[in-house]
Amino acid sequence: MIKINLVGERKRPAAPGPSQQLKGIQEGANVGIWALAGLVLAGVLITLGHLYVVNGKVKDMQQQVAEAEKEVKELEPYIREVEEYKAKKVELERKVQVINQLKTNQRGPVQIMDRVSRALPELMWLTKMEVSPTTITVSGEAFNTNAVANFIENLDRVPEFQEPILRDTSQRGQIYTFVVAFNYTYQVSQPEQPEGAEAAAG
CB within 10 Å: which end of the chain, N or C, has fewer? Predict the structure, then answer.
């Protein structure tokens, strides 16, 4: 009896040959290369983007510097005027200080003359007055010796004057001549304040 198998036997899958294995390896290698190329390209694009941003910031900074330099150039005339004004102010302050110092130096002789003139009694007049840094020598004439004595007494009452000394006296007819010397120290008077200043200060 003859049997016929109509279904047929399943074919076993053929094992990949060497050429197919090589092809698979090449495909994997190509995928790796493309992936690496993609990473490199992404890195280049990121770097270019960063450089673009940095260049933009540099340009902005350069523009700000240019604007600042332009403003400085525009302000240079005013800066020079301010510097000249400061120099003139310093010079004027120096001149004012010199003038005030001269006024202060003048107050001493003025005070001395005022004190001596106030000490003069009647029947007496001065003919000469010499002033050194610490000593005053006064020469004059009077009609009597009492006037000379009163003059010396009045000088002795002045706080800035030390005890006067009668250095010489002589008579010429009815006129008595004399020479009186004394040391002195004077104080610079403070400038007078306007009325109400003391009340305001209090």
Answer: N
Predicted pLDDT of residue 28: 67
Cross-strand bridge partners of residue 182: 136
Give residues with Cβ within 8 angstroms of 188, minimum separation 6. Answer: 104, 107, 108
Burial of 131 (0-12, 13-18, 19+ CB in 10 A): middle
Q: Where are the domains of the chain?
A: 24-118, 120-183
Token pair listed for 164: 């006067």
113 vs 107: CA distance, rounded Å: 10
Distance CA(111)–CA(92), nearest Å, equals 28
CATH class of 120-183: alpha beta
pTM for this one?
Answer: 0.43
